[in-house]
Amino acid sequence: MQKLTTKLPDNPGVYIFRGPKRVILYIGKATSLHTRVASYFRRDLISTRGPIIAGMIEAAKNVDFIETDSVLEALILEAQLIKKHQPPYNTKEKDNKSFNYVVITKEDFPRVTTMRGREMDELANSRLGLGLKSEVKYLFGPFPQGGVLREALNIVRKIFPFRDKCKVGQGKPCFNAQIGLCPGVCAGLVSKTEYAKTIRRTKLFFEGKKKTLVSGLLREMKVSANNLKFEEAGQIKRTIFALNHIQDVALLKASPRMVLGEAGFRIEAYDVAHISGTNTVGVMTVLEDSEPKKSDYRKFKIKTSTNDDNASLREILERRFNHAEWPMPKLIVVDGGTAQVNTAKKALKEWGLAIPVVGVVKDERHKPKSILGDKILAQSHERSILLANSEAHRFAIGFHRQLRGKIR
Question: Residue 62 forms beta bridges with which residues?
Fold first, then answer.
C-alpha cells in the first residue's frame, strides 16, 4: 500500500480514501487506478456520483492504493477490505441488504452461488429452513455490483469448474457439464475427494490467496509428474497458467461503469395515475445495478386537490425526500416531457439536491419515443431508464386500479 503523492498507475487495483487521522472513509476498485480516482475530482461529481460521495471527497485527506494483477483480483480485494473495515461511505452509498455475496454451501458436493444481503437475512431468520450457519460453509463479500460479480464468477468457473444448480447423481450431465463449467457432479463424473480440491482452490482464490494457491498447485504438478501422471500434471499446469493470465475481458468491458462511478447505481422512477383528476396516485420504483429493487417501491395517495400532474409529481418528490433514511438516487426518471423534468429539477434545486433528472416522452400509443435530459446519462443508462419508467407505469396503474376497486 502506498500513499498517493503525484499520480496513480494506469493499472487495476483498489483505492482507499482516508479522512483525518487516516480513518478509512471509502474503498473502491478500479480497472485503471489513475482514471478512476481522477473521476472523483471532476466538476460533475455530484451529478455522476451523488451528494453522499461528494461529501466524502470533501472530508478526504489522502488516497492509498493497492495494485492487483487483474480486475478480477481487484474485485475480490475490494470485498475483503470492505468487510474488514466497514467504511462509513460504502454503507451510506448502498443499503447493506443490496450487497452481493458468494456462497459455498455445506453439502457433500457444495454449490457455489450468489446471494443478496436480504436473501441471507431471510435465510437466517427462517423458521422453516435450517438457518444460514447450517447451510452455508463459506461466505465471501460484500460485493457492491451484482452484474460484475456474476461476470467474475463466470471467469472463476472457467478456471475451477463448479456445481451451482444441478442435482447430484441425476444420471446425465447438466448443460454446464456439457460445456465444461461443471465437473460432472450430476453424472457421477467426479469423486467427492476430487471435487473437494476444486472447492478448496475456489475458496483460496476468493480469500485473495492466489500466491498460496499457485504454490500449492506447483507442488501438486511436480508430484503428478514424478508419479508419471503426465495428463494430470498438464491439467494443473494449464490451471496455473490461467491463474497467472486471468482473462477478465468481460470485467474490462464493464470498465466504463467503474470509471463513471456506477457502483450501486440507484435509479428512481416516478409516475402519476388518475382518471380525470380523481383518485390520483403516485409511485416510486427503483433499479439498482440495472435490476428492479421491488422492496424499495413506494405508493403515494396524492393529497394535492388539483388536476395537475406537475403538482402531483412535486408532492411525491417532496414526500419521498422527507425520508432521509432512504438511500439517495443517482438518477431520477419522470414520466413526461419538458414540464415534468423542469418541475422535478426546480423542486430538487429548492431542497439543495443536485440529482440529475431525465424524462421519458411517449407517443400517442404511450410507447417511449425519446429521453429528455442529460444526453450522456440518457445514452449510457437507456435500457435501465426505460425499464424503470415501464415499472413505474405498471406499478402506478396497478395501484390506481386497486384503489378504485376499494372505493367501489
Answer: 18
Same domain, 14 and 146: no
Contact 240, 224 (CB under 8 A): no
The last residue of a domain, from among 166, 183, 206:
206
Residue where a domain stops, chosen among 57, 91, 125: 91
pLDDT tens digits for range 281-339: 889 999 987 889 999 999 998 887 567 889 889 999 988 987 766 888 889 999 999 99
Residue 365: HSE in the Cβ half-sphere, 13 Å Cα cutoff: 2
H or E, element range at 260: helix 255-260
Dihedral angle, C-alpha 142, 143, 146, 150, nearest 10 °: -110
Structure-block grid coordinates of residue 271: 409516475
Q: What is the pLDDT of residue 269?
A: 96
User: Whole-model pTM?
Assistant: 0.57
Q: Which helix (DSSP H) or strand (DSSP E) does residue 188 occupy?
A: none
Containing structural domain, residue 51: 2-91
Number of domains in the chain: 3
Cell readout for 187 is 453424472
Instruction: Please give the Cα distance from 281 to 153 (Å, whole number).
Output: 42
**What stretch of H or E contains 67?**
strand 62-67
Q: Is 183 exposed, middle or buried (0-12, 13-18, 19+ CB in 10 A)?
A: buried
